[in-house]
Amino acid sequence: CSGMRDDLKRRLPHYVSDWTLTSKSSCKVLASILFMFFTSIAPAVTFSVLLNDKTEIDGNSQIGAVEVVLSSAVTGMMFSVFGGQPLCIVGVTGPVTIFTIACFNIAKQMDVNFLPFYCWTQIWAALMHMLLAMTNSCEAIKLVTRYSCETFGFLIGVIYIYTGIMEIANFFDDDEFELVTSYEQLLIALGTAWVALTLTNARSWTLGNPLVRDLIADYGATIAMILFTAVPYMGGATEVDIAT
Fold first, then answer.
1. Region 101-122: what's the mean pLDDT?
2. Which residues contact 103 (CB under 8 A, 6 or more apart)?
3. The model scores a pTM over 0.85
4. C-alpha distances in Å from residue 210, one per residue of 23, 25, 96, 207
């Protein structure tokens, strides 16, 4: 357990300051909080829709948006407090979603109840993580090149993009939705991405003073998410049947 003791010694002097220093730069902290909130909630909702469809038994989904968002919130808060790393973000990712769907398919093939099966799977995973931490196995990361890390990051990025594209494409393939509904979904998706990217690059603008540009860049993603969340409720858009 020497690795865990060393981690504790390194983190303990900074544990309190990670929480108290926020008052000295509240504007930056608020921007970071809102940014991480939306970047955490967006994939959670996206992947929960996929899990909702892929874990259905007799018309009842085993895991949906409520379960994913609630578990992400609870585990995130617990990790921040007890893990000594309040700046570390915990949330659902593409590989976790794929693993969950695989567990569901295995449970279905074995004709066992999915939720208890999945619970025990996660308990064993937790025990394995504890064992790795106690044996300081993370030191083996020194033997891994950046190529492996970048490849894994690329995989997650591709899964995010693929899932987003497929969700939009499904609106065009599903006869349940009118064409105008599909186009509005596409507009909202592309508009959110474009506005977020444009505003977060505000620091390179020549318009306005540096303080304003910095503020816009900090809150760019938040502004985009709020703006295009409100679009379906504006003007004539309210007459379009938007799937939620």
1. 90
2. 114, 117, 118, 121
3. no
4. 22, 17, 40, 9
- Residues 130-177 pLDDT 10s: 888 888 887 787 887 888 778 878 887 887 788 778 888 888 887 777
134, amino acid identity:
M
What would the two tokens of residue 36 be?
């991480």
H runs (alpha helix) in the chain: 2-20, 26-54, 65-82, 94-110, 114-134, 146-173, 179-200, 210-218, 220-230
State the Cα–Cα distance between residues 244 and 242, nearest whole angstrom: 6
The structure tokens 């570390």 sit at 88
Domain coordinates in residue numbering, the chain: 1-143
155 with 93: CB under 8 angstroms?
no
